[in-house]
Amino acid sequence: MKLSSLILPLIVLLAMPAAVFAQGKNVVYKDGTTGLTGYFVKANIAKPGAPGVVILHQWLGLTDHEKESARKLSLLGYNAFAADAYGTNARPKDMKEAGEKAGYYKTNWQIYQGRIKAAITELVKLGADPNRIAVIGYCFGGTGAIEAARANFPVKGVVSFHGGLAKDEKRPADAIKPKVLVLHGADDPYEPEAEIKKFQQEMRDTKAVWQMNYYANAVHSFTQKEAGNDNSKGAAYNELAAKRSWQDMKLFLAEIFAKQ
């Protein structure tokens, strides 16, 4: 066999985008009797027992945005699972229904926490190291990531991208063990300053190890291209904020997953 016949396929293979190696699959699982359908991408490494990251969706339900995050995380060496909080075939039909569904789970936070716990359990079943799990989320899912910390689920840390921070003050405030990273648009109109201050005080009161990063000229949904570019609408994509927040998340995950 000629050497050239071996070299050419290798050159083509190396030239292919890395994302082609991150092939995901739909996964059906349950929270009690509720059927859920998530999206799993195995870590792009040879050895088993890689850390795992649960990705929680924004209020419209599981979309390509969360799936793309899962594929990117797999290329970083993480088993990634984009979870489903609403249920199989229960994705909102429009913004109105999305608001209603997200509002229901924010109010009924015990149910929301149950959906998150089910996703963590499923990710471990799919091969993630049970001792090295993180939860990240976008918007409504960012609220969910913080709920995972409030529930003290067996995770190393949580990351909220432009998530809701509010919490009913009547709820108990136990010491928070997972590390917390909040990635926030400096001009987000949906998070009043008073609410931010209450959240920060909550972090202090619960003795959490937390960090909150602000991104200039960024409003709500700054990681989501489908949000458009008009800041005046209150939700818009910001390329620089999206890139910087992703890098901040990468540093955070490397820190919490570092083997002692």
From TrEMBL:
One GO MF term attached to the UniProt entry: hydrolase activity
Keyword Hydrolase: yes
Gene3D superfamilies reported for this sequence: alpha/beta hydrolase (3.40.50.1820)
Pfam family membership, one: DLH
Signal peptide limits: 1-22
Transmembrane segments: none
Keyword Iron-sulfur: no
Domain (Dienelactone hydrolase) ranges: 47-256
Protein name per UniProt: Dienelactone hydrolase family protein
